Amino acid sequence: MNRLIPFCLSLLFLAGCAAPLKTTRNTGPWNLPDLEHAPRAEWGARTGLVQEVYYEGEPFRGKPTRVFAYFGRPEGTGPFPAMVLVHGGGGKAFSAWVEHWVKRGYVALAMDTAGHGPNGPLADGGPGQSDESKFRNFPESETREMWTYHAVAAVIRGHSLLAGLPEVDAHRIGITGISWGGYLTCIVTGLDQRLKVAVPVYGCGFLGENSYWKTTSLPKMAPDSRERWLRDFDPSNYLPGVNCPILFLNGSTDFAYPLDSYRASYRLVAPRLRHVSVIVNLPHGHIWTFNEVDQFVDGVLQGGAPPPRLGPQKTEGDVVRAKVVPPTRLNQAFLNYTADSGEWSKRRWETQPAEIKSGVISARLPEARPVVWFLSGIDARGLRVSTEHEELAADTW
Predict the structure, then answer these.
(1) Is the pLDDT of residue 301 over 90?
(2) Which of 57, 158, 244, 291 has the fewest CB within 10 Å, making it most exposed?
(3) Residue 335 domain flag
(4) Do 17 and 8 contact (CB within 8 A), yes or no?
(5) How far apart are CA 53 and CA 76, in angstroms?
(6) Torsion angle defined by CA atoms of residues 44, 47, 49 and 50, in that order, rounded to the nearest 10 degrees
(7) Residue 206: which domain range?
(8) pLDDT band at residue 2 using 50, 70 and 90 as cut-offs
């Protein structure tokens, strides 16, 4: 029996069994039917819980390529749920990340997206992941030579590899990625309708509107190349296609993916599917030990108790409120706000206790204007959730 069915019945509020959105999906330059076939794979050395694997990638400069990955599986017969793990900039395939999920009862695959193997660049690897490689000038004919094209394809093929294994329940596969891996997760989740849960950490779209790269790499591109890059490789073009529960986890002062672009990105996803956890001063790094990620995934794929969720904020005068949905006991609640303006990464945030009563969080806004704020809560497991951020202009009283 497909074990996803009882999970879905118990998790309707997460919309884990939601039908695909009835919109025309943008599939960009990728051949999805081809990528959704299990790739040829060569299995290598095993160390403890983890085994090396190489699988076919997209052709690069007219030659075939291989993608290196670490694979792990729990003991037992399965079938098990599975996770696709996508590293960020300056990262690699992390065996310790695979171990983290295997110990939680998942088959896991962490692939390299920079053309590297366990000991450095592969002779038959794809393009590197430097900013110079990601944002180089390119004509239309070289779209499929670009890093994002290859990285997205490698991630989707990794999913297809997992889905074709007998020890994996193909109906219970999720994805999480960190930073540039979060960026890729946003694109892949909008493309790959087979995924059942997703957690992009930090990464988002609208990079041409506001991001670290808006003032660094993007202005260096020729106008036609920049236009093509934003058309084909910005996640904002694919997030409307997301059809599974997705948790957006970020910090209030992230240097790369600021809150305005972050909010614009998650608002592209249907409200019934999107969940938000913005954490004040969250550090940016290859961190895969966020309990919010683990519990969110477990809630969809394992039938575990999901994290709480905060409904839309309502403002009456200078009092803001948000319901806890579904009714869940929160141990603490907060109003987080900043009266600073300018770069999001440099704003100073203040946090003060909020009231919790009858499943509703409420707080009084400070008198300072302009002000940006969001409500947040922590449950008994220490899981942190938040609302979207809201803003009042300087002339609003």
Answers:
(1) yes
(2) 291
(3) yes
(4) yes
(5) 20
(6) -40
(7) 4-307
(8) very low
Return the pLDDT at 22: 42
> Is 397 among the domain residues?
no
d(CA 288, CA 276): 17
CATH number at 152 reads: 3.40.50.1820
- The length of the chain in residues reads 397
Residue 78 pLDDT grade (very low, low, confident, very high; cuts 50, 70, 90)? confident
392: tokens are 């009042």
- For residue 109, tell me if it sits in a domain: yes
Query: 88 or 12: whose pLDDT is higher?
Result: 88
At residue 293's C-alpha, the angle toward residues 178 and 110, to 5°, is 45
Give pLDDT tens digits for 17-40. Answer: 333 334 578 999 999 999 999 999
Please state, in angstroms and rounded to a whole number, the distance separating the CA atoms of residues 206 and 288.
Answer: 24
pLDDT digits (tens, 9 = 90+) for 346-362: 999 999 999 999 999 99
Looking at the fold, whether 246 and 329 belong to one and the same domain comes out as: no
Give residue 393's pLDDT.
87
pTM over 0.85: yes
How many domains is the chain partitioned into structurally? 2
Whether 315 and 188 share a structural domain: no
**How far is the C-alpha of 123 from the C-alpha of 63, rounded, in Å?**
11
- Average pLDDT of the residues in 127-147: 97
Q: How many angstroms separate the CA atoms of 26 and 9, rounded?
A: 30
